[in-house]
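Q: I'm building a small set of examples for a reading group on sequence design. Run inverse folding on the following structure and report the sequence directly after it, with nothing in between.
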């Protein structure tokens, strides 16, 4: 172009991981191939009214058959890392019992393809596709599911532990527990706040058992983490009432996961706040120690901040709420631009969140395992895809991440959500998060302007440009 842009000084450490992320159910398709069993998302998506437009992941973006082309796209973008998840129901079709070798074969092919392209695999063991047979026994409300997860993790580690270094147990247990069992917006679609709190504990326990299993199979070579969608929560004012609302939502959204995982204990104030919903008797002796497995890094997904205020005085309590026990709180509108998900955009929330975790949890190394936005991309006359809003969004969030590094945060990587447009859960294919456009009828992939921009940005930050 006509404007010469000075090469910015490198703001990210040598060895920083530059990646993009995905998850099995959102991209793979091939729902009934090679012995895959049904998951709770197959069931949910087939239940009328649950997913917009009746969309399902049956075909998705057919990554199961097109993974070679997709790895070529990653290499072309200069990604140094790729985050994906393994589908439990491909590997154990009913969630327990013998391994389905054909299911593991697929991930072995994918990992080998990545490695030969020089791309580091970041493997997530669970991104929401619970085998339906386990849900039939209570799903995450049942302690047994956590034990089964530990076995599943060991199976994957035995097959791939010789070539995968970066292991993540769970993606966003907040979503599994609260969207799955409290507000019912995600599979399995239950609305029961007490069940959601039991799910929190069993997901935490699954994390601990999974981490233990991977560690014992792979040893110290494994880099272990969990990915949390921590809530960058702000109080509407500094009044004691609003600050107490902040404490409560932070407790349920963040500390209920962070404290047992990183400190080995549940936050007493949150257990007390929710005592009218559950007596927490499902926490057994020894569980907090199991959950407190040694982690090498924490994965953080960040999209948007959340502002909270005290109950409005009307006495009204929402019957259906994402956050158990928080139906009385209010969430005032804030004056910020929004994405087409209606999520407010504010990159300073990412800086706040990184600083807070760094300060409260002993400087733990972190990786931004998801960040990005859904957009109505504009397709130009020659098929080029324009998404200037996404470029601005990513650029601002990278600036915020760089600021956190300058302020002392040990940040190890940044992953775009997502590499491709894909199945956006309850929104189906209606919301596009990709930096690569997918024309669903033909499965044709086209790099959006943001993908070209990201390629240049990575090269520049790595000193290759
Ligand atoms: C994350 N919420 O999901 C997931 O890890 C991805 O699979 C997903 O595609 C991406 O973010 C974009 O949505 C979330 O309602 C879904 O607060 C919903 C919420 C948060 C995260």
């Amino acid at each position: 172009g006509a404007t010469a842009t000075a090469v910015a000084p490198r703001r990210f450490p040598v060895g920083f991981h530059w990646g993009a992320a995905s998850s099995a159910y959102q991209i793979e398709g091939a729902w009934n191939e090679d012995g895959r069993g049904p998951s709770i998302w197959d069931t949910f998506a087939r239940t009328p009214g649950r997913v917009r437009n009746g969309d399902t992941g049956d075909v998705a973006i057919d990554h199961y058959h097109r993974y070679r082309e997709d790895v070529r796209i990653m290499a072309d973008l200069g990604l140094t890392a790729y985050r994906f998840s393994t589908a439990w129901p491909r590997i154990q079709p009913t969630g327990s019992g013998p391994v389905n070798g054909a299911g593991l074969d697929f991930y072995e092919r994918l990992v080998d393809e990545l490695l030969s392209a020089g791309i580091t695999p970041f493997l997530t063991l669970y991104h929401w596709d619970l085998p339906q047979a386990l849900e039939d026994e209570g799903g995450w409300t049942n302690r047994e599911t956590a034990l089964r997860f530990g076995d599943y993790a060991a199976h994957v580690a035995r097959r791939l532990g010789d070539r995968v270094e970066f292991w993540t147990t769970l993606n966003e247990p907040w979503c599994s527990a609260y969207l799955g069992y409290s507000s019912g917006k995600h599979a399995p679609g239950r609305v029961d706040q007490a069940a959601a709190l039991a799910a929190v504990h069993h997901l935490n326990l699954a994390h601990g058992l999974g981490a233990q299993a991977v560690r014992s199979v792979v040893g110290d070579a494994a880099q272990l983490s969990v990915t949390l969608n921590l809530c960058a929560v702000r109080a509407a004012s500094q009044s004691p009432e609003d600050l107490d609302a902040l404490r409560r939502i932070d407790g349920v959204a963040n500390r209920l996961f962070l404290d047992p995982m990183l400190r080995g204990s549940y936050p007493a104030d949150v257990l007390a706040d929710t005592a009218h919903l559950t007596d927490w008797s499902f926490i057994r002796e020894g569980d907090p120690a199991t959950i407190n497995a040694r982690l090498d890094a924490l994965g953080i997904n960040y999209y948007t901040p959340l502002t909270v205020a005290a109950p409005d005085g009307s006495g009204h309590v929402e019957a259906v709420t994402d956050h158990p026990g928080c139906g009385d709180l209010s969430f005032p509108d804030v004056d910020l631009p929004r994405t087409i998900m209606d999520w407010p955009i504010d990159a300073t929330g990412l800086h706040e969140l990184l600083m807070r975790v760094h300060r409260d949890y002993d400087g733990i190394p972190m990786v931004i395992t998801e960040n990005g936005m859904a957009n109505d991309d504009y397709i130009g006359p020659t098929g080029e895809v324009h998404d200037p809003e996404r470029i601005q969004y990513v650029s601002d969030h990278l600036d915020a991440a760089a600021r956190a590094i300058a302020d002392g945060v040990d940040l190890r990587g940044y992953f775009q959500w997502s590499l491709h447009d894909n199945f956006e859960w309850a929104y189906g294919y209606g919301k596009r998060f990709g930096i690569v456009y997918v024309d669903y009828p033909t499965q044709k992939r086209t790099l959006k302007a943001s993908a070209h921009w990201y390629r240049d940005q990575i090269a520049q930050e790595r000193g290759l440009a």
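The mean pLDDT is 97.
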